[in-house]
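INFO  loader      accepted 1 record
INFO  loader      residues=647
INFO  predictor   begin
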Amino acid sequence: MIQYAELAFDLPILEDTFTYEVPSGTQIGMRVEAKLRGRKEEGIVLSLHHNEPSYAVLQVDRVIDKIPVINDEQIQLAYWVKEQYLASLGECIHKMIPSGRRHSKVKLTEGLSASEPFPLNEEQEAAYRNIKADFGKDSIHLLFGITGSGKTEVYLHLIRDILQNSNKGVLLLVPEIGLTYHIIRKLEAVFPGEIALLHSALKVSERFKAYTDLIQGKKRIAVGTRSAVFAPVSNLGLVIIDEEHDGSFKEHSTPRYHARQIALQRCRTNKAVLVLGSATPSLEVYHLAKTGKIGLQTLTKRPGTAKPPTVRIEENKKDARLLGSELTFAIKQRLDKKEQIILLLNRRGYSPLLYSEKEKTYIPCPNCTSHLCYHKKGTVICHLCGFSDSLQRLESKLGEKLVMMGTGTQKLEEFLLETFPGAKVERLDQDSIQDKSVLTDVIGRLVDGEIDILTGTQMISKGLDAARVTLVGVLNAGIGLGLPDFRAGERVFSLLTQVAGRAGRSDLAGEVLIETNTVDHPIIRMALDQDYIRFYESEIKTREELFYPPFSRLVRILSRSKDESLSLKTIEEVHQVLKKHLPEPNTVVLGPAPCPFYKIDANFRNHILIKTTVQNKWREILKKEIRPLKISKNVYLELDFDPLDLV
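INFO  predictor   done
INFO  writer      dumping tokens
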């Protein structure tokens, strides 16, 4: 008897599945190659049957897998994701399958014998017991602990409890594998042979091995970044999202999911506990905890003799010095004591701006609403679209010598090497870690005391735990405050608080020096005091007044096209459809309007923002009336539910 399969393809199409003839032995969850509309595509088998269609059916070209790579829970989850984010079923299910690049040094050490997690202090023990009491229920807890308060130890005790007392599995999500070096090492020590590591820097073969170990039930703990939220952990009992505030948990391509929302749905399905850990939780999550909708467990002190760092501020002087006198002196002191320093400057490149004296303007990117940045080795780069050119060719074209202005991490690194000869200086930013193995190598050497000064962009604020780091310096701390985005202040506060928390994590006293020309800005002042509660109480009032989350849910509709008039025409057509449903109580529609970054990579961008307490109603309107719109193939329409940025 002929066997037929319903296949889902990774394409932005309205149809969920297409029927094909498949060979015997094909199983649900396997990938196949098949021709669709004249092109060879990869599809996933979602169901099998013997019902002969009334139309001609193609045979698949080949079956790719020997065993299924997607299980039943993932298939059901894909249907849910499709409805939530209005993507095609194929796009949703293909997001779950591992992909990767062919390089990494982040590997687990096999063959270790298990060690015990560190004992908990009174606060940690209370948090652990309160969360453990909800095992077997679909509950949510915020583990709100100051930096260095030992959230990882609470995680370890919870994971151990699940593994020892049930047959359930665990999922741990982290913002960046390379920067959570200490968590991976602790997990290896306590749970040897139980961990499947999932992230994009692994070789494809390594990632698939870890993935298939999970789907076959050989491993019970999955650890990974955003996409690992889809990992096929059998009988899920506990999900932990470390640094839940981090923007990397939001996906920026279709489907534009947030890992927290996917984790919540999986916990509902499996009756599992969701733990959200952070020293600077997202305002939405902290508001849920404060209003009693989720559990709140608080850690207010560092374990043992470690104390939070002292924090001081130094106003930027209008002179040519890269570092202020206080910070320079503090660095010299730490170097003399053989202690370590972290310096944050959230600007890539050598000089962020190139100035034309002839035109009295900064040099823009030819493809973007952005400026070109000078990088070492004579290149100019746009950080929005990746456009690059040689400085020499650009100056020849313009007929003048351009003036380099400002300081980026490359210039700071060069200055540090000149000012502190003999110091071992390393830099971490998107330019220095194009090979992901560099990241884990540098973090490992920092932890092992082989680096004196680590400088870099915001990535160095995440999760670093080095015992001899006693000084953190922040240069130009106000970068980002001027962005036209309601979350700009939250991001800056979180960044400053998190990077400050890298200092003084052992019995050595820590100090933080913040340099800024906005010393009186309330966000800077609250970060100086490390006062999240005051920040929350101030920010929540503004959010309520302006009807932003957590008092509303957002939907962003964005049209982009290389044809400026087409982009505008499309967003106006969308607006006409939406207007039919307005006015709507508890809903505000802003726009259409040009995006703050109006042009990126030669695409003109316009958007509409819906603020509403009835997001599901607008989801249905978009599904029924916007997705089926006949839109030019030269326009791309993005639907983004709960967007994290609006630029």
